[in-house]
Amino acid sequence: MAQVNRKTEEWGSRVGFLLSAVGSSVGLGNFWRFPYLTGEHGGSAFILIYLGCVLLFCLPLLMGEYAMGRKSGMSAVEGIQSLARAEGKSKYWGVVGWVGTLAAFFILTFYGVISAWVLSFIPQAMSGKFAGFDAAAAGANFEATILDKPLILTLLGFFILANVLVVARGVSSGLERVNKIVMPLFFIMLLGVVFFALRQGDSAAAIRFLMEPDFSRVTTETFLAALGQAFFSVGVGLGIMVTYGAYLAQDTDIPRSSFIVAGSNSAVAILSCLAVFPIVFAFGLAPDQGPGLFFVTLPIAFGQMTGGAFFGSVFLTLALFAAFTSSISLMEVGVSWLEEREGVTRPGAALGTGFAVFLIGAGYVFSFDYFRFIDFVAGSLMLPLGGLLAAVFAGWVLSREMLVSELGDGRLMNAWRFMVRWIVPPLVLAIIVLGLSGAGRA
Predict the structure, then answer these.
(1) d(CA 387, CA 390)
(2) pTM above threshold 0.85
(3) pLDDT digits (tens, 9 = 90+) for 336-352
């Protein structure tokens, strides 16, 4: 296939690509979303379902998205349109890329707000403000923090500006360089936080919670939550991996890289639970506190534990690192597409995208209900829908020959093609329908 307008920039090294790809996957989905969903849906029962979703759905889709990206050498929207034209299919299959690109954009808008919350909590933890907090005080502190609109808007602007500055520098000088610095620090800090939590907290209770599944808590909504979380954390269905695939060198092994990215992401998600739940159980706190687990429940523990000011500061900084490496990848999806528009420079595209993200994020600051609505629509609906459409396109629209150069022509290709044609689409569709019907009855 002719690769018209193929991107000229590539990842500087395989290590740089892998660190960037893992960084795009590891984010607030691991630190904020995964622990509270695990607490709400039966502990290890949810983890088992989540891991099943990663293996059955996310891994095949990850391979497919990298392959489509490298084959086209273009952004998610333009790349999928070009692949469809090469197969003699309608250009309207570009909707696959549009759903992912829009989902990435809207997730970035509320990602920025949550990151602003994290930023506001770091100096609180460092100053020892959480000392003596009970549930009422922690709840009042969280409410007062998010209602401090000038502060949150300022921090939101700072966070988005940092994203713009990195993405504007390009792939190797911006995204890759930042991830090469941040991701090694992230993993060192994560292991330190887990070790500290297991030593200071109730590790036995946490391990029981994470090893003994409570299937009585599992409903159809649990499967929808696990599927949405798998897509959210791994980053499939968002156009990110198609975009990142466009910068891949031809000698990069896509299946092996996909295993590394999906495996690393799942490991970080589980480690985040080991960082959270020993502390939660040690101080008699409930694990099923929903989104407030991070900003209400944990500060109570930080305020009571020995070294809580230091531990809380490191933990929140870790979450901020994770948020930043993911947010720059979310911004790259839209910037990559805008850069392909005639007359749009990368710095201009980054600045325009950042301004739009800030305006919408500012709306969340003034309306928390709007924030929750977009979280549900983007995280639980658009993400699985984007993954479903990507699977249908890769499995049924693209011919086998189209992606042989990217995935090989052996047993692995046979297994991958079977999964994206016969396993991923019907099961993802069933989970979406059953989950939404269950939510409707509730």
Answers:
(1) 5
(2) yes
(3) 999 988 789 999 999 99
